[in-house]
């Protein structure tokens, strides 16, 4: 994922036929210093969701078990990448019966499909520290494209000497696009669970190489 990409304004269709000297592209040392492989720290990261329930309120939850890798290249943003694996059985909404229902075949079918995965395919800078990361989200046996808007929160060295980077953001999906279609009609009209789900990401990752 090109987390630090900037658009190249060069129009090659206007370039002269004769070779010309090309000035080297300046690389921001601060961004170049971030280059490396980072491991998502699950103890200080969260992957959450919220969905409208009974048409009147939102139910919020998260997945407590997940792992991921960021490969950042500050000098060549297009070479960056991200991957994330989420353990479905770790879903937690604070209500045990509801969590069991979400793990069942009515929803995620966690026994047959234990992981939800995301693999990045590209990115664009929206301005400042805001980015849009695109990739493939797989839930159950369905893979569909997903765009996640993220904000780069910066970098820091923690008290243990670990170099960390942080990102937060979110996306909206229609759960039916991934085959999550269970619902129940309400006597007053509408349905028990909204099709639209808001995803949230708050990521802290530690440089490992």
Written description of the protein model:
6% of the residues lie in helices and 49% in strands. The protein has helices at 29-32, 96-103; strands spanning 36-40, 46-53, 57-63, 66-72, 81-87, 91-92, 115-127, 130-139, 142-157, 163-174, 193-207. The protein has an 8-stranded antiparallel β-barrel with strand order 1-4-5-7-8-9-10-11. The model is unreliable at 4-25 (pLDDT under 50).
Number of strands: 11
Label the overall shape: elongated
Beta-strand portion reads over 45%
Assembly state of the chains shown = single chain
- End-to-end CA span: 17 Å
Task: Walk across the major sheet and give the strand order.
Answer: 1-4-5-7-8-9-10-11
Secondary structure: helix percent: under 10%
What is the CA-atom radius of gyration, in angstroms?
Answer: 20 Å
How large is the count of helical segments? 2
Kindly list the characteristics that best describe this protein.
6% helix; 209 residues; eight-stranded antiparallel barrel; single chain; elongated; mainly beta
């Amino acid at each position: 994922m090109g987390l630090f990409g900037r658009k190249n304004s060069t129009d090659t269709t206007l370039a002269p036929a004769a070779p010309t000297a090309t000035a080297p592209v300046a690389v921001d040392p601060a961004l170049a210093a971030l280059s490396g492989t980072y491991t998502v720290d699950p103890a200080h990261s969260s992957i959450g969701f919220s969905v409208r329930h009974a048409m009147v309120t939102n139910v919020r939850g998260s997945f407590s078990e997940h792992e991921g890798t960021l490969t950042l290249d500050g000098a060549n943003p297009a070479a960056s990448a991200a991957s994330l694996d989420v353990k479905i059985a770790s879903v937690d909404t604070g209500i045990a019966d509801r969590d069991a229902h979400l793990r069942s075949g009515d929803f995620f079918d966690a026994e047959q499909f234990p992981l939800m995965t995301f693999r990045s395919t590209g990115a664009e800078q929206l301005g400042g520290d805001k980015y849009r990361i695109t990739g493939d989200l797989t839930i159950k046996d369905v893979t569909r494209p997903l765009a996640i808007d993220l904000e780069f929160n910066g970098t820091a060295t923690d008290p243990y000497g670990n170099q960390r980077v942080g990102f937060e953001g979110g996306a909206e999906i229609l759960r039916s696009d991934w085959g999550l279609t269970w619902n129940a009609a309400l006597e007053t009209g509408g349905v028990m669970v909204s099709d639209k789900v808001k995803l949230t990401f708050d990521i802290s990752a530690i440089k490992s190489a």
